[in-house]
Design a protein that fits this description.
Structural class: alpha+beta
Largest sheet: 4 strands, mixed
Order of helices and strands: EEEEHHHH
Shape: flat
Number of helices: 4
Low-confidence stretches: none
Strand content: 15-25%
Helix content: 40-55%
Strand order of the largest sheet: 1-2-4-3
Radius of gyration: 20 Å
Amino acid sequence: MENYILNENKKRLEPTETDCEYCKKRKVNSIEDCYFLNLYNVKKRTNLLVYRSVKYSLIKVGIRRCVPCKIIHKNADKNTVLYTTLIIVALNIILFSVIGIFGVITMFLSLYLAIFLLSFIKNKLSLQKGILSDQKGAKQNQLVKDFLKEGWSTKTPFA
């Protein structure tokens, strides 16, 4: 925590060091180039028969990232959506032509496949450039590890 300062206006922890945590070669130019990982901590959960609610705390933790690593992550995000869409559309066309009307079932299976493909392709595209994906790299940060040990989560809580 000593390497971070709290920005109360933006409700986030900003790193004070400047070495990139992804490539470990370059320096961070601007705090806005950093990747900010959302961490959640459930404060109160209510489950009644007809009413559900959850109250939680949110903090953003800045992960040091240089401009080239930021560009790699942005390109990986764009290309992941493109590649996944092409794969799913091609798969549906092929299965519709082979199975016929029962190919409608493949549309539902494609949704599950798309969820898997999104994270898989994003990780592969980042690894090809020699760095971890933004999410996986962020989880290597010591402060994030400490928050996760204390019960915080990277997934948005729901009722």
